[in-house]
Fold this protein.
Amino acid sequence: MRLEVQTATQAAAQSGRIYWQSTEGTIHLDTGSLIGRAPALTGIQQGRLVGITNPTGVSGATTYSQIELAGGLVLTGTTLSGGGAGNPLSASIFN
């Protein structure tokens, strides 16, 4: 399979179409009624979080980043835990 390359987001109209949007650096998935975006990240390291922001609010201007955990923090599955004595931390991610 080969992805077509587009420099601009296409109108949602062809259900099942997948293309590489080179300006955003994302894969676009056409459902026929909307365009979904999947980040294409490289160099992701185990134990890092993926940050997703859209500071401008413009559709398609989403920015993806990797967040390295500070010392003492551990990500196991969807649970972030850690902290020193007297400062416990435990949070569930994606729930």
Remarks:
- The chain is about 0% helix and 40% strand.
- The mean pLDDT is 75.
- The two ends are 34 Å apart (CA to CA).
- The first strand starts at residue 4 and ends at 6.
